[in-house]
Amino acid sequence: MAKKNRSAPAKGLRGSKVGLALSLGSSALAVIRASKQVRRAKGSHDKLNTADAVAGMLPLITSAALVLRQLRGRRTRENGPETA
Questions:
Q1: Are 56 and 34 in contact (CB under 8 A)?
Q2: How far apart are CA 71 and CA 24, in angstroms?
Q3: pLDDT attached to residue 73
Q4: What is the mean pLDDT of the chain?
Q5: How far apart are the first and last CA of the chain?
Q6: CA-CA-CA-CA torsion for 39, 44, 46, 51, nearest 10 degrees?
Q7: Using one digit for the tens of pLDDT, what is the confidence trace for 24-59?
Q8: Tally of CB atoms within 10 A around 57
Q9: Whole-model pTM above 0.90?
Q10: Radius of gyration for the alpha carbons in the chain, expressed in angstroms and rounded
Q11: What is the DSSP string of 17-80?
């Protein structure tokens, strides 16, 4: 029996503005959640837990930055190059 491709509906959203906005929104929520985890870890004065929480935030911040770059690139392509 063949496996169903559960991500098939999302394929159309990958390059669209809506898809990028959803991706950015989910990344932002994940960063907020991770920052709360960092605050809790700092409050417990557990250095290892704090380091783990900070390390967990780094990929989230990177993914948000990549999505922002895609959005900016899209905007510049739509506006076209400016001529002086």
A1: yes
A2: 9
A3: 79
A4: 76
A5: 60
A6: -10
A7: 788 788 888 888 888 888 888 888 988 888 888 888
A8: 16
A9: no
A10: 18
A11: HHHHHHHHHHHHHHHHHHHHHHHHHHHTT-HHHHHHHHHHHHHHHHHHHHHHHHHHHHHHHHH-
